[in-house]
UniProtKB/TrEMBL annotation:
It comes from Anser brachyrhynchus. This is G-protein coupled receptor 26. It is found in: Cell membrane. InterPro entries: GPC_Orphan_Receptors, GPCR_Rhodpsn, GPCR_Rhodpsn_7TM, GPR26/78-like. It is a multi-pass membrane protein.
Length: 327
């Protein structure tokens, strides 16, 4: 193994460990907190977490083996199953993120009618469409034998070995990425930019009230005035940072891999195998970032996992004290 391959293998191992721990923690928070389970977005987050966990335990280990051994790990049947899952889970994850953005858009833009427009039944229908949409492409690919081990990405994924099927495979790949990556990106941009517009409007209203209050309170201490202005500035930046994170991580993680797949089909630009694996690792990094972006850094999830840790520590301290009291 070259130094590059050692580094890439190490990166995949780190991604696997962090993704497994973070997504399991999200799942534990969902099971532990009744409040999280009651919320409609919890269904989308649960579906996203399920996809991430399955991707972590099925696809990442085979990519690691592909990097180390430079050949297809396991038999053809295992590779076909893993390639099928890779296509299904990636599409399902993208559409789950789009569903979460639609939920936020309805909640922010139509707050009074949110509970009538986004019920558990509506969320279940959206998830049903997500699964149907996601499973249709790998079924077509598997039926046409377009799933196999691709040396460029050291992964079991969409791959055409027959030159006579090249035109059909190019069309299929273009349609697949258009209706998965591009469609999800358009939904994310549309919904979150609408949310940002509403958030900025509310910030302006709050800023006007804050400035009027500061003008009226002539005897206010300068430090208090300064804190109010700082909070006003942070409030303006908060929504922009969150929405930039949602859209930015999606583009940063998925775009290099999607663009590489499309450039590869053109046969005009030669693609390094190292770059192919790097682009695959960037796509895998979304599995790592999703738990933090959508769950663990939110206040409700923070409180839940901190309560879980405190409960475990409290129980262990009680057990240790009981052991010390024994003769």
């Amino acid at each position: 193994m070259s130094i590059w391959e050692v580094i890439l293998a190490f990166v995949v191992v780190v991604l696997m460990l962090v993704a497994l721990l973070a997504n399991v923690l999200v799942l534990m928070c969902f099971l532990y907190s009744a409040d999280i389970r009651k919320q409609v977005p919890g269904l989308f987050i649960l579906n996203l977490t399920f996809c991430n966990l399955l991707m972590t335990v099925s696809n990442m280990p085979l990519t690691l083996a592909g990097i180390i051994y430079k050949s297809q790990p396991g038999g053809d049947q295992i590779c076909h199953i893993v390639g099928f899952l890779e296509t299904f889970l990636t599409t399902n994850s993208m559409l789950s993120m789009a569903a979460l953005s639609i939920d936020r858009w309805i909640a922010v833009v139509f707050p009074l009618s949110y509970h009538s427009k986004m019920r558990y039944r509506d969320a279940a229908l959206i998830l049903s469409y997500t699964w149907l949409h996601s499973v249709s492409f790998p079924i077509v690919a598997a039926s046409l034998s377009w799933v196999g081990f691709h040396h460029l990405y050291a992964s079991c994924t969409l791959y055409n070995k027959r030159p006579e099927d090249r035109t059909q495979f190019v069309i299929f790949t273009g349609v697949f990425h258009t209706l998965s990556f591009l469609l999800s990106l358009i939904v994310l941009c549309f919904t979150y930019l609408k949310v940002l517009k509403v958030a900025r409007f509310h910030c302006k209203r709050i800023d006007v009230i804050t400035m009027q209050t500061l003008v009226l309170l002539v005897d206010i201490h300068p430090s208090v005035r300064e804190r109010c202005l700082e909070e006003q500035k942070r409030r303006r930046q908060r929504a922009t940072k969150k929405i930039s994170t949602f859209i930015g991580t999606f583009i940063l993680c998925f775009a290099p891999y999607v663009i590489t797949r499309l450039v590869e089909l053109s046969s005009v630009v030669p693609i390094s195998s190292h770059w192919g694996i790097i682009s695959k690792c960037l796509a895998y990094s979304k599995v790592v970032s999703d738990p933090f972006v959508y769950s663990l850094l939110r206040n409700q999830y923070k409180k839940t996992w901190k309560d879980m840790i405190n409960k475990i520590l409290k129980r262990s301290s009680i057990n240790s004290s009981d052991d010390s009291c024994l003769p």
